[in-house]
Design a protein that fits this description.
Length: 173
């Protein structure tokens, strides 16, 4: 029997109650939000449940929403896949903008180790319990997080390019 999204939703609500919400079907991906403090419990449940079997973590990433209220300025998004039923889900956990942190799932899915490091590197989200949370692509000396919306798109001090070639001037030449 095929796994239906309503079954996934019912099992999640039965187990986690109001801590899972905003269920939505977006094309072929079933999505929902979780309270950030239960992210590991929900992911373990989805992975280990004998009928749900979401054994594959496809992706983990961060998002910055600077215009949201402070307790929802960052989100960590998990994409999981059930290969048996070919079902995909997206889980979003919003976290605080003043102190963006959430528990690691690197002990549940080993592949999330580098994904969490990349998210830390670009957004500054602290994954509590991560075995080696340090920058993965940027320099260790870097003090900013380049995927945050307040990070400038360009270095104003660059002298190696001419804006005329990028259509950024109104001068007629």
């Amino acid at each position: 029997m095929a796994l239906e999204t309503i079954e996934i939703q019912e099992k999640l609500i039965e187990t986690f109650g109001e801590n899972v919400f905003n269920f939505n079907q977006e094309k072929d991906i079933f999505s929902f939000e979780v309270a950030a403090d239960i992210n590991t419990s929900v992911i373990l449940f989805l992975k280990n449940h004998s009928e749900l079997r979401f054994h594959f973590l496809t992706d983990l990433c961060g998002i910055h929403y600077p215009d949201n209220e402070i307790d929802r300025q960052f989100a960590v998004v998990y994409h999981m896949h059930n290969w048996y039923e070919n079902k995909r889900i997206k889980i979003k956990a919003f976290i605080d903008g003043d102190n963006p942190q959430i528990r690691t799932i690197s002990n549940i899915f080993l592949c999330s180790n580098w994904m969490e490091r990349e998210t830390f590197d670009f957004y500054g989200i602290d994954f509590i319990g991560h075995p080696q949370l340090k920058r993965i692509l940027n320099m260790d000396e870097m003090i900013s997080f380049p995927m945050r919306k307040e990070f400038p798109l360009e270095d104003g001090g660059r002298t190696d390019k001419d804006d005329r070639f990028f259509g950024r001037t109104t001068d007629n030449y």
